[in-house]
Amino acid sequence: MHTNVKNITLIGLLSSILFALQYILQGIPNIELVSLLILVYTCVLKKKTLFIIAVFVLLEGVFYGFGIWFIGYLYVWFLLYLIGRLLCRKNNPADLPSLTWALVSGAFGLSFGALFALINFFIGFVSGGISGGLSSAFAYWVSGIVFDLIHGISNFFVALFLFKPAYKVLNTLMKSYERN
């Protein structure tokens, strides 16, 4: 029972950190720390990260409303989790070059609009078939490419400089957490 309470508390705390950082940085377009922290959480906490992402996504929906964007949040962060798990499963995250984490995070930021364009594909598909879906998705993606570039570049540099220190801090804290 004690372990469950500790895990619920941990998940709530780390989810709220994601949400608070997203909220604090919302005034700066496409500069965020959520991608970095999801990768760090994934490498340290493994499957617990799935619960953290679920709580974070739900908080975003409750706070900002359950618009069409929310559908994208239901899969993009879990996709980043899967990518992180693939990298962490085969490697010690601290042994991988910082450039690896920067490239993963940067590519994720760069592809964010394309991942959300999938929603527009299905919306366009309903009224215009394959052609309508492709046109809708492409228009959505192209209209936001500048923001994707900012997102990709900022994610790259954030991960380049902060992944290893954040991983080391969380890993150390979790060792202490697990002993108590």
Short key terms for the protein model shown above:
globular; membrane; transmembrane helix; 87% helix; mainly alpha; Energy-coupling factor transport system substrate-specific component; 180 residues
Order of helices and strands: HHHHHH
Classify the secondary structure makeup into a structural class: mainly alpha
Tertiary shape: globular
The amount of helix comes to: over 70%
Low-pLDDT stretches: none
Question: What is the makeup of the main sheet?
Answer: none
Strand fraction? under 5%
Strand tally: 0
User: Radius of gyration over alpha carbons?
Assistant: 17 Å
Task: Tell me the domain tally.
Answer: 1
Roughly how many Å apart are the termini? 14 Å
Transmembrane segments: 51-80, 101-126, 138-163
Keywords: Membrane, Transmembrane, Transmembrane helix
Protein name: Energy-coupling factor transport system substrate-specific component
Organism: Anaerocolumna jejuensis DSM 15929
Describe this structure in words.
This protein is mainly alpha-helical. It has one domain (2-179). The protein has helices spanning 2-24, 34-45, 48-64, 68-90, 98-143, 145-179. Helix 4 (68-90) runs antiparallel to helix 5 and helix 5 (98-143) packs across helix 6 (145-179). The longest helix is centred in the C-terminal third of the chain and has 46 residues, at 98-143. It starts with a helix and ends with a helix.
What's a quick, concise take on this entry?
This protein has 6 helices and no strands. With 180 residues, it is an all-alpha fold.
Give the SSE map.
Elements: H1 2-24, H2 34-45, H3 48-64, H4 68-90, H5 98-143, H6 145-179
